[in-house]
Design goal:
Hypothetical Protein Pfu-838710-001; globular; alpha+beta; 4 helices; about 170 residues; single chain
Amino acid sequence: MQNLEAKFKLHDLERARKQAEAIKYQFKATLMQRDTFFRVREGKLKLREEESGAWMIFYGRQDSQDLKLSSYEIVSIAEPAKTRDIMTQALGTIATVKKTRILMMRDHIRLHLDRVDDLGEFGEIEAVLGEHGDPELSRPAVDELLRALEVDRKNLIATSYFEMLRAAR
């Protein structure tokens, strides 16, 4: 699977939610997420745990100040605690990121309004492209959302939350 991504700092999640709702984004869920990142040679590998389930996610993307194209694979995990322990023993962990995520959607565009423990508030856009989708077809919708949220593309963040946490320490 592929998606087109953008990440940015926010200062008021409720205001951002209202701005997104003004252009027809709909609230889908509030999620409590724990992402455990494991040491791997290439890409990023994480175990995501939520109340509704757990998934192992492997992804690769270029670190870029602009919109990023990401490729990923996801598999459901039946025993997350045991899987986390095994993966930690086998590979080692890099970091654990805990966040509260408000998920909003319009068509194939996801907006995440995140409150990340020890980091602050952020927004993340994911345009889900499928296996062979054309990212250029999603850029207008992503740009519209960035404008609605008053985010300048030069302020997009290139790194992941776990890299930001490591840099802050």
